[in-house]
Amino acid sequence: MFGATDSAFRQLLCELGRPDIMFTEFINVQAIFSPDIKTVTQLLSYTPQEQPLIAQLWGLDPELFDAAADFIVRAGFQGIDINFGCPEKAVVKKGVGGALIDNPALAGKIIQSTLKGARNRLPVSVKTRLGYKTINTEPWFKFLLNFELAAISVHCRTAKAMSVGPTHWDEIAKIVQLKNKYNPKTLIIGNGDIFTRELAYQKIKETKVDGVMIGRGVFHDPWIFNSIQIPKTKTDKIAAWERHLAIYRTAWGKTKPIHPLKRFLKVYLKGFKGALTMRTGLMNSL
After folding, report:
1. Residue ranges per structural domain of the chain
2. What are the pLDDT digits (tens) for 48-57?
3. What is d(CA 135, CA 4) in angstroms, rounded to the nearest whole number?
4. Cβ contacts of 69 within 8 Å, gap of 6 or more
5. Domain 20-213 has what CATH class?
6. pTM above 0.90, yes or no
7. Would the pLDDT of 4 be above 90?
8. Which of the residues are catalytic?
C-alpha cells in the first residue's frame, strides 16, 4: 500500500508476526528509468530479513515493463507483481491500475512484456479486482488465465467500489473454478476485508483459494500475521510504536520526512485508557 508498507513497516512486521510473503509499495515503471530516482530508490529499498519480497509495478508502457522486469530480477527481488487493481481516482483517471480491467488489449501487452523481461527468472503475478465499474468476473479472469501467471490476487470488489460496501467472496469462489478448468497452475489469492486470522482461514475453507492477502487488516491489527494470537496490552502497543519509530529513523534518517508516521498512531495507540491523549500529544510533536 503506497505510503505505508515501506521497508521500515515491513521490518517491523517481521518482528511482530511475519507474513509468508510481502509486497513493495507500487512502483511506476516510468519512474524507474527517470533521471530523478530518489523516490524509486526508497520504494525499492529492502533488507534481507524482508525476503521473500515481491516488487509491485504499475504503468502504461509495455516496453518499460519489459525493462523494469529485468531491473527487478537484478535487484534481488523474489517476484514481480503487476497492479491492475488500484482504485485511486488519480490513478484510474490515467487509465492505469483498476482501469486496465476495461482495457484487456493493453493489459495483455503489459503482461506479455513483463513475462518477456522476467525470462522465467522470477514468477510474475497480477493484482486485480472483480471489474472496473461493474463485476466482470468470467470474461476478465478467463482472459488473465490465458497467461502463464504464477498467481492472481483478487480484491473482491470493483475498482469503482474502492474499499466501500459489500465484498463478493462468492465471485472469488467462481474464479477458483475457472482456474481449475483453464489453468490449474495459477494460484488464486483472495483479498478483501480480512481483519482476523480466523476469517482468513474461513475464507480459504469456503472458497478453496490458495491463500489470502491481507491489506488494510494489518492496520487494524499489526500482529495479525502472528500465529500466536494473544491480547495486546498497553505496554505492547506503545512498544510497537516506539520500535516502528526507531526502525524508520534508522532506515531513512533525514532522507525521508517523519510526518508519514502520523498515520500509524491510530494503529498502535488505541484501545487503552489515555490512548487519545497520547496520540494527540504525539501528533503535535511529529
Report:
1. 20-213, 234-285
2. 999 999 999 9
3. 28
4. 57, 80, 113, 114, 115, 116, 117, 118, 122, 124
5. alpha beta
6. yes
7. no
8. 86
